[in-house]
Amino acid sequence: MTGRLDGKIALITGVGGGIGGTAAAMFAAEGARVVGCDLDEAAAGRTEAAVRAAGGEITVHGGVDLGDAGQAEAWVDRAVATYDGIDVLYNNASTQRFGSLDELSVADWDFTMRNELDLVYYTVRATWPHLKAHGGGSIVNVGSIAATRGVEFMPQNAHSAAKGGVIALTLQLVVEGGPLGIRANVISPGLVETPNTAPMLADPPDRMRRVVLDRIPLGRHGRPEDVVNAALYLASDESAWVSGAHLVVDGGGSVLG
Hints:
Blueprint: E1 9-13, H1 18-29, E2 33-38, H2 41-53, E3 57-62, H3 69-82, E4 88-91, H4 106-134, E5 137-142, H5 157-177, E6 182-189, H6 198-202, H7 206-211, H8 224-235, E7 246-249
Parallel strand pairs: 1-2, 1-4, 2-3, 4-5, 5-6, 6-7
Helix pairs in contact: 1-2, 1-8, 3-4, 4-5
């Protein structure tokens, strides 16, 4: 432990696995008291047990659907009450559906907006009065490189639009939150290995290899800790004068045209 988050209370969404599970572990290892949530109750329990076994302080609530405004507000109120405060909100949770523009259903579009954009808004909205009462804090949102460029290897129209909304919302949070001491920043990951992407990365389609993997200047796809290390910086006092940053974490791939 280096104690970069000693004394801080961090709310992290979507901690059941992948980047969120890594975030819960790394934030707790840096001294944060973590309150997490996940829609998957069993996964939430596994993360809580693992972090506690490693000596971290954490409470995780399972079965929380942040795409429902009422559930988001109830979780935030419960989470803030757990350790009597909040310093950091890390909006990691995200679920999407993919399909070409003429094949993606309206229901799939709505699902993606609900579970990538709406849930961020609902959670921030519920957290805002607590951050105001606390005298400020750090909001870390998660965008995507798909929000800033076209993606060639698979159709991502709904995902791109939703994450573009997250980036735009973050900029407005900077302006409205600044006088209140609230900082807001966004991280846009590239292709990261998670339980969802691992099968695809184990045997990548030729087109994905050519247009994505072979074009990453640093020569590899991402790992969860690559993203979480960026979030740790934005959550810590090291970034006390950083608000409105859009931190791309993609091995350099997005600089290539």
